[in-house]
Amino acid sequence: CNVGANAPEEYGNYYAWGETTTKSEYTEENSAIYGLSISQLQSQGYIDGAGNLNPQYDAASANWGGDWRMPTKEEMRELIDKCTWIWTTQNGVNGYKVTSKTNGNSIFLTAACSRHSSSLYNAGSRGYYWSSSPYEDYDYFAYYLYFSSDNHDMSYYNSRYYGLSVRPVLE
Asked: Which of 2, 14, 77, 102 has the fewest Cβ atoms within 10 Å of its own Cβ atom?
């Protein structure tokens, strides 16, 4: 389930990219790393040499501990390319049942949408999930998974200060 949730169909918490606590408002002004370049993120310890969040800035690692972490952009791409996606409702909540083409295992991703300022947008119709990877060419974005009932892919156009869901992966 998502960080902050107790069941797969619960939305869970929302996190700005590179932050490990929730907020009442998600804005540029209260983001510690909005606008930092890749070299600044590395020199200040936010990301590792591979370009992914270090555990202390990874919402999954910081909140769940152990070997839990946020997925990389490559792992999100694998989820998109190597799974079947079926829009469905689970216990009254919209989202996707995502099933591996390799082993048949599946997960349910809620359409929990996102938070900007103090508002929740498009809950029940869209889902947005952070990766641990910043976008390399623009200092305000990071990669994320997005979906609606008729589309799913990865992008980088949400600003790092937006509050998105986090679905942990385990090493």
From this structure: 102
